[in-house]
Amino acid sequence: MSAGGSLPARPSNDATAVQYGQREVQSGLIVTSVALSVAAVGLSGAALVDNDVARWLLASAGGLCTLCGLFALIGTAAASNDRFVFDATGWWWFSLDGDTLLTWESLAGVCIYSTGDAAVDHGTATLELFPSGDFDRDHPVLWRHVRDADPPADGLPRLRYRVELTNIVNVTADVEQACSRWVPPDLWHGNKWQPKGYKGRADHTGHRRRLRARARITTPQADSTTPPPPHDAVPPGNPQDQAPSGSPG
Questions:
Q1: Contact present, 86 and 15 (Cβ < 8 Å)
Q2: DSSP 200-213
Q3: Which of 54, 177, 187, 244 has the most CB atoms lying inside 10 A of its own CB?
Q4: Strand arrangement of the beta sheet that strand 159-164 belongs to
Q5: What is the pTM of this model?
Q6: How far apart are CA 216 and CA 221, in angstroms?
Q7: Cα–Cα distance, 187 to 209 (Å, whole number)
Q8: In this predicted model, what pLDDT tens digit does every residue of 13-51 receive, in sequence order?
């Protein structure tokens, strides 16, 4: 989603980047170290015991811990370049799922939802991005983050993109600081408290149904001169898809 006109191909030199992928790699290294330590103990024990059953159990546990540690390291290393970037143009997201940009001109509001004080409780926090005008529920990168919930202020739409800030590492403070610097004052609504379990879940079923409907509608027909329907349309006779709930799922 972007405003009209020419957009930059990359963030500005003075942009604020939140490199959460690199922090996740550090967490992955800790998990890997612990898993490999446990695996070493299990394999050492298997070599020392005389009981075949105990030896098998210890060896299996050691092998499983080794695999868990390696998978944790590989998974976090693959996402080491994941980051949020804020600049005068808008909010950029670079991730394994793809790269995207939401310009400030394309948004009606921005805020952070959180369930507690990050200094006291890990809690949950999300970046809430409210679009202005057309809303793409099936955005190739952001569709999993679409939620429908009461807005934090009058004039904001219910539908928004909700992006996790506390998945593996907590980057809430860094994102809030970046928002305070770069989000235009008339769009920034600060940090809003929410009850636990507010995150909701993605509308996987509706997303698949809309993609199938769109594929059928846009398939060329030899004798058809009817133009394709709008992006969010569904075939006649089918009930309109329900937007994903903002309540806990």
A1: yes
A2: ----HHHHHHHHHH
A3: 244
A4: 146-148, 159-164, 125-131, 107-114, 188-193
A5: 0.69
A6: 10
A7: 33
A8: 999 999 887 665 555 555 566 656 666 666 666 566 666
